[in-house]
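Run log, item B.
One chain of 740 residues. Sequence copied directly from the ordering sheet:
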Amino acid sequence: MRGHEHSDNDLSGTVHGFVVQAGSVHGGIHVSGGGAREDVPQPWQLPPSVRITDRTDELRALELHRCRAMEDGHPTLAAVSGLGGVGKTAVALAWLHTLRPHFPGGQLYADLGAQAPDGPADPGEVVGRFLRALGVPTGQVPPALGERVALYRSLTADRQLVVLLDDAATAAQVRPLLPAGRCVTAVTSRRRMPGLSLDGGHVIHLEPLSTEAAVELLDSTLADGRVAAQPEEARALVLLCAGLPLAVRIAGARLAARPRQGITAMVRALSEEHERLEALAIEGDHDVRAALDLSYQGLPPSAARLYRLLGLHPGREFGGPVAQALLGEDAVEALDALYDANLLVDVAEASGGERYRFHDLVRLHAAARAAQDESADERTAALLRIGRHYLANADRAEEIIEPRRVLLERDFEPECVVEEDFGADGGQADAEGALDWLERELPNLMAVVRLARPMGAPELAWQLTDALWPLFPRRKLYREWREAHEEGLLAAEEAGDEEAACRMLTSGALGKLATGAPAEGLAMFERAAASFLERGDALGHARTLNYRGLAHQRLGRPDRAADLFARAADALPACGDLRAGALARFNLADVAFSQGRYEDAAVDAEAARLTLEAAGDAYNAARAAGLTGRACVHLGRLGRAESELSAALSALRAQAAGFEAARVLGGLAQLSERRGQPWQARQYYREALSLYSSVGRSGSAEADEARTRLGALEPPEPVAPDLEVPGPGPSGDAQGDADA
């Protein structure tokens, strides 16, 4: 057992990157983070294109539509529909790649997962990824879909870029992802999506290749003269593939692996397989299935087994380490064999790292072969290996991002873990690399969370949810935060683990505070508190005092919040958690400051700072120093205020804590006002407002106050800058100090 409950307010502590911080002034869950990222490279996310044949008319129609839209000053929207395996994505990529010289703003790509095992992608999640790719820091990505879409449209209004929305389920899923301005968007779907015509879209439906074009594709796949030597057999083969490029490529890949085999033998084998699968046809895909069965039969045993086991993978994409977790050292050669047989698509360019995915028809075929050729126990064991692989690496990531967090026991065997590459090389980059990995794998991790209980491993659901904790607040993934903790709580209850259930309640409740649902959060905190009391866990109960205080603070009940904070400040040190007690005392000072009790605020904040510094919590110690300094401004202790605020600002800037730094700047501005330095005060207020804007908090009460005070300080009419003589800065003028 590595721990048993939150050691403190888990949203506090030394942080790397962006963080949602609970327990700030007025009880808010505030977002801290740096300003806009500089020198962000343009996103070039499109997967590589593949050879296509006989699509000249479609490409010409797409380009003609783009030219007309550009002439009219409208964005370009085109939808490409057709059967699975007909080449929709290949056509869209062939067109969009030619546009790169004309659209320097970049390329965005999203697999919308209409056929994905875990269901279609959420538009809010996709637009959030787009915003980050366009350079929006995580701390500025709004939580609500409408706000994300508005920001996305604003960013793309004057930008020239192309967007590929692959495998869309509905027009409603697509609409929030359409950029503004003169951008180009291509959508692929098995459905024709006439609804996109209302958005100015041009809909093209792809038919299977003509016989001649399919023969040409087969010839280019083989590139060894067999098609020219056996033209009639080649025609017979592509007819059996029904002109579907995917089926032609798969059949061609199998022939290419057998250079001495004539096309006739393939025709005979495919004819027999076609008849066997005729009754199983779905949307005309029996031709692909026949080709897949033949390719499967020709795989080496290790590759065939990996194919089956990867068919069980609950997500859309996977990396090489997952294959190794399933198959061991043979996985590298087996992956190569699957790729050479056109059974895997390499998506490394779009997603980063070594990553693969199945075409949806191939995935269905692989899953069917697993059901047929693997026993139920073997399938369950494979799913558990996948789940524990992800849990082990999420556990690694969590320890890198938040090394001081007390962890609950995790159910995996360390010696069997295949380590994922987090792409970092030390320092803060390690934490950012671990966060990036968690976010990239989040669809797979969430798929495991959903699958764990149905497959009889509820502990996997809550353990993986708990390991994901550092990701949710830092990357503002509120939907997944809520869903994972709801499922994790059900799993902990099903497993009969009250300790895990309390962790799911408190972590999930902090998510409720972060999304503006403090009443729901309070109910969850109180439920956890009752459980701790019943089990005699004094430390766990003491921690809920602080959490419940945060909820009451958000609900506008400062007196009730102050009572809970005071009790927590006494109880937590008595239970051995000095740092958590200091955080509770800081929250108590926070309430006192909001009520104008500045002496109480200064005393409690200073006491909290000393304990937090001793505990090595530089971030929260700086917050406490900032609160002490602001209280001293109101008390007229200007020399001490300057010292506290200057030290706090330096520390908070070093940790990219934008929101807290802005509040300290507000304190320095008020200090300058008290010293009769309006020019200096205006400078501080302007810098504070810039920081509030950079972290998405320009509408906060603190930002509103800064704007109001700045407006009151503005001269009645414009004054030339060279005529305005600034007074000495706060560090150069100690006159008027009234330190006690």
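Observations after the first pass:
- The beta strands are 19-22, 29-32, 76-81, 107-111, 162-166, 184-189, 201-205, 317-319, 345-346, 355-357.
- The CA atoms of residues 677 and 728 lie 8 Å apart.
Flagged for discussion on Thursday.
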